[in-house]
Structure formats: structure tokens, C-alpha cells
Amino acid sequence: MLDREGFRPNVGIILLNQKNQVFWGKRIRTHSWQFPQGGIDRGETPEQAMFRELHEEVGLLAEHVRIVARTRDWLRYEVPDRYVRRDARGFYKGQKQIWFLLQMVVPDHHLNLRATDHPEFRRLALERLLGAARFSGGVQTRRLRNGAHRVVALFAAL
């Protein structure tokens, strides 16, 4: 589902555990690490999509987290042509995302990468990124892709 401008609606999740460590997931069949995220289905609100993706990707339910913050507006990023399928070139531009900052209210053992029949992550890491709110060019910033560094900077002030 694309909007009129060629952007796919999507939600992104920055998930903090009770120690304020950030969840990173290593995708299956790739070398990339990323935050949980995924598309918004027709008829879903961003919040509904976020809770669906949260369960599908890391096995958590709404009662396992609290929403700390979310971006007010869509954050857009364009995908370079070399990454766009040939048949989608010309009308697919990239993604627009609403990001959520969630705090787990349950222990880490509730994280379950095999909660569904189609797992998306094969490994997880918990790293201390937001606690000190220092994002000056270090490894943390380089690892954040697709505009997620902007989201972390927005949420860092909380």
C-alpha cells in the first residue's frame, strides 16, 4: 500500500527494557541489525500496527509495554533506486514512518523472537544508547539507518 506520493506507511519501534537498554534485532538472512518495524495494513492505525509488529517481531503484547512517546508527523526517507525492485521503479519512492518509543514493564525474558510462524529476527542485543542521551558520531549513530538516528535524537530529550 503506497500513498499518492509513492511512500509506504510504516511504523518503527524503539524498545527500552527496564534498564533503559535499547533492543536491536539481527534480521534473518541478512547482516543488518535494526529496530522492530513494519508496514501499516489497510484500515490499521499506526498504534494498532505498532502493537501488531511488536508481537510479530519480538513477542510482546500491549500489556508488556508503555508508550513513552511517538513522533507527531511522518518521517520520510527515499530509497536509492538501486534498492528498488525494477518493477516498482517510477512510483515507489520509499517509506514514511511513525516512530514509537516504548518502555518494557516486564523482564527481558518476555522477549520472544519465535512468537509467530514467520520470525524476522534471529538474534537480539540490548545496548545502552538512550540512558546518557549522547549521540555524537559514535558507533551508535552509524548503526542507526533509514532516518532512525533522527528519531533517537528526538526521543533523547525525554
- Proportion in β-strands: 25-35%
The coarse overall form would be globular
- Which H/E pattern describes the elements? EEEEHEEEEHH
The Cα radius of gyration reads: 15 Å
Helical content (DSSP H or I, runs of 4+): 10-25%
Oligomer: single chain
Mean pLDDT: 82
Provide the domain count: 1
CATH topology: Nucleoside Triphosphate Pyrophosphohydrolase
The CATH architecture category equals: Alpha-Beta Complex
CATH class: Alpha Beta
Number of helices: 3
| Span between termini | 33 Å
Number of strands: 8
Describe the structure.
The N and C termini lie far apart (33 Å). The chain has helices at residues 46-58, 139-143, 148-156, and strands spanning 7-16, 22-27, 33-34, 37-39, 65-70, 75-78, 94-104, 121-127. It has one domain (7-156): Alpha-Beta Complex (Nucleoside Triphosphate Pyrophosphohydrolase). The protein is built from 3 helices and 8 strands. The longest helix has 13 residues, at 46-58. With 158 residues, it is α+β, with helices and mostly antiparallel strands. Strands 1, 4, 5, 6 and 7 form a 5-stranded mixed β-sheet that branches. A 3-stranded antiparallel β-sheet has the order 3-2-8, with no helix packed on it. It is globular, with a radius of gyration of 15 Å.
